[in-house]
Structure to design on (257 residues):
C-alpha cells in the first residue's frame, strides 16, 4: 500500500508541475511558434521589404538621424545626404557611399560634387550621368560653384577649374570669380519629413521577428529569458513523456493483476 501511495504522489506531483509550467509558458511558446513560422516564409511574405513605422520601436532600436547631415539649397529646392541616402526635398533620389561636397543649379540641371565625381541630375531628381576623373574631372574637389560668367567651377587640390556645358573640357581659371556652394540648415518641417522617411527604411519586419524569436528585442536579459523558456520546454517534453510512461506502466500492471 505504501509503495503504491508513493508512486501515486510522485505521479500526481509531476502532473501538477507539468500543468503549472505549461500554463505559464504557453504564451511564450505561442510567440516562438508564430515567429518561427513567419521567419520560415520570409521570402514569400517579403518581411525583409516591409518596414516598421512605429515610433517606440524605432526609438528602442536607436534608429535616429545621422550626426553629420549635409544640406544644400538649390534654387527653391533642398538637397540632403543622410548617410548613404540622397534626398531632393523629401524624395529619395539615390544612394552613394561618398560624401557630397556641394551642389549647384546649372543649365536646368543640378550638379552634385564629390571628391572626384560629378553627379548630374534633372530638376525632378533623376540621375542623368556620372562624370568622373576619366572624363577629365579634376581630382581632390573641395568646392563647387558658379562663376560670374555662369560657368560651372570647381575648386580642386590644384586650383580653380571651369568647364563647358558638356563637361568635356576643363581649364584652369585661377582668376574666376565664383559663388561657392555651402551647407545650410534644413527648414524644420522638411527635416521632420525626411527624418520619418529615413527612419522608416531603417527597420524591417524580418529584423523584429528575428529579435522577438531569439529574445534580443529585450536585450541581453531577453536572450537569457528565452533560454529559460527553452529549458522549461525541455522540462515539459520530459515530464510529459514521464507521465505518459508511468500511466502506461500502471495500466499494464493493473491488467496483469
Amino acid at each position: 500500500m505504501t509503495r503504491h501511495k508513493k508512486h501515486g504522489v510522485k505521479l500526481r506531483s509531476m502532473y501538477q508541475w507539468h500543468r503549472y509550467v505549461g500554463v505559464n509558458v504557453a504564451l511564450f511558446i505561442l510567440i516562438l511558434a508564430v515567429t518561427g513560422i513567419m521567419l520560415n516564409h520570409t521570402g514569400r511574405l517579403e518581411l525583409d521589404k516591409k518596414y516598421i513605422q512605429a515610433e517606440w520601436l524605432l526609438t528602442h532600436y536607436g534608429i535616429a538621424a545621422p550626426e553629420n547631415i549635409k544640406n544644400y539649397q538649390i534654387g527653391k529646392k533642398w538637397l540632403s545626404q543622410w548617410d548613404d541616402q540622397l534626398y531632393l526635398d523629401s524624395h529619395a533620389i539615390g544612394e552613394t557611399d561618398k560624401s557630397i561636397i556641394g551642389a549647384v543649379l546649372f543649365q536646368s540641371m543640378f550638379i552634385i560634387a564629390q571628391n572626384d565625381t560629378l553627379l548630374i541630375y534633372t530638376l525632378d531628381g533623376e540621375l542623368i550621368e556620372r562624370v568622373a576623373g576619366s572624363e577629365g574631372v579634376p581630382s581632390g574637389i573641395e568646392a563647387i560653384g558658379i562663376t560670374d560668367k555662369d560657368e560651372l567651377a570647381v575648386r580642386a587640390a590644384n586650383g580653380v577649374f571651369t568647364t563647358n556645358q558638356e563637361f568635356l573640357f576643363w581649364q584652369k581659371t585661377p582668376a574666376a570669380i565664383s559663388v561657392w556652394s555651402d551647407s545650410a540648415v534644413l527648414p524644420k518641417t522638411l527635416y521632420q519629413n525626411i527624418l520619418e522617411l529615413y527612419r522608416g527604411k531603417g527597420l524591417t519586419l524580418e529584423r523584429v521577428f528575428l529579435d522577438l524569436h531569439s529574445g534580443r528585442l529585450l536585450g541581453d536579459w531577453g536572450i537569457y529569458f528565452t533560454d529559460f523558456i527553452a529549458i522549461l520546454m525541455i522540462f515539459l517534453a520530459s515530464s510529459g513523456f514521464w507521465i505518459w510512461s508511468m500511466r502506461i506502466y500502471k495500466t499494464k500492471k493493473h491488467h496483469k493483476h
Remarks:
- Residues 2-50+204-256 form one domain.
- The mean pLDDT is 80.
